[in-house]
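Dear Dr. H.,

I hope your travels went smoothly. While you were away I took the liberty of generating a structure for the chain from your last submission, since the lab meeting agenda had it listed for discussion. I wanted you to have the full record in hand beforehand rather than looking at slides cold. The sequence, exactly as received, is reproduced here:
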Amino acid sequence: MRKTSLIGHVVELHEEIRQTPRPADTIVKDFFRARHYLGSKDRRFINDVVYGIIRNRTLMQVYVERAVGVLGYQPRYRTIPSLALYIAYAVKILRENTESVLPDVAALAHIHLPDFDCMAFVQAVQRAEVPVDIVNDPVRRIAAFYSFPEFVVSEWIRRYGEAEAELLCGSLNHPAPTTVRVNTLKTNVENCQRALKREGVAAMRTELSPAGLVLERRVNVNGLESFRRGFFEMQDEGSQLLSFLLDPHPGDRVIDACAGSGGKTLHLAALMDNTGELVAVDVEDHRLRNLTERISRAGVSIASACLVGRDDATIAGWYAKANRVLIDAPCTGVGTFRRNPSAKLSLAKEMVARLSDTQRSVLNSYAGLVAPGGRLVYATCSLLESENEGAVDWFLKTHEDFTVLPAHEVLAGLGIQLEGTSRFLTLFPHKHSTDGFFAAVMERRA
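The corresponding predicted structure, in token form, is as follows:
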């Protein structure tokens, strides 16, 4: 397909993502499903550019606004047109020169940028620089260059320092690797690695998780025989460590209190050697329905699903009976921005406050299910203090029968070595090559 047509698809898809509240990855899948004529290279170009624009949208907006200001335009748009953002991305991020960009966007500019002289605009974007008042302000500079909410950057500078905050934002602004967890109910890491290699997919072992592999390229796993046979599941390495922190044993009674699509439920079943009782709890029925298929493929027989609001009596029947309870709480997902970059563009302080209330409520609800001597793991894929340390500190003050176990010592006992002395586990993408995660391990006094 001609590049002009591909850019037209980029503009169309980006506009749909920007105007629709549905998750971006869902919109992208539906977009490609409805356009069978697009080849694999075409889809890859469109996908990569759209997500590139999303990851860098704030910075692209700065460049466009500077160019518009220099040219003296009085544009009629309320939001910057997607084609203008594409031009800024092509020139500033992909480093394409004006002569190569112009032929590809000229025809589209007549439709999407009717008020602009296309050549003058592209040249102005090429010359545009970030304003000095932004560059000289550490919070505004990092927020602009990595398209992050300023209040998040401000917190990270306060907690970690300017240099570390910039490294963290930079790492979260790059695509995540493709990481899988080997299903030890069906195979082992070495055999799974060999099976993938036979299918043309090279993989190397993860550094922290003893059950993980990193694929050397993106691949449609649904087309792999090893996946259909249940040899592995898609799961970030940091997420895998949460199940190891819970450390369930065969024969235990275990609750995955915010199961979602069930990735950790399946891991817990493998760690329990498919022996004992395992309940996956969630508030969304469709998630639990999706879990049923995954349970079957993974060969798990001990897991059952409970829907909050429908199976409350069953959940209450577990009061003080669970050996292990995992709460991977609803959160802002700040630590997963490299997988879901559009989320950072809609994140607001009010959302953090609302979710902090939810997290405390979930902790309060499910802590009572932990048996005396049992273990509770509270986790988020956030790196914000109020969702993490703040929630745990509140919980410990209101539940004096729980005490913290140092997370690093728990993992060290399983042969997983992590640097650090904090009593909590905090994973950073720029340090650990995982998504950003927080976890606290707590034990209920006997």
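Two observations you may find useful: The longest strand covers residues 370-380. The chain has four domains: 3-129, 134-172, 178-234, 237-444.

With kind regards,
E. W.
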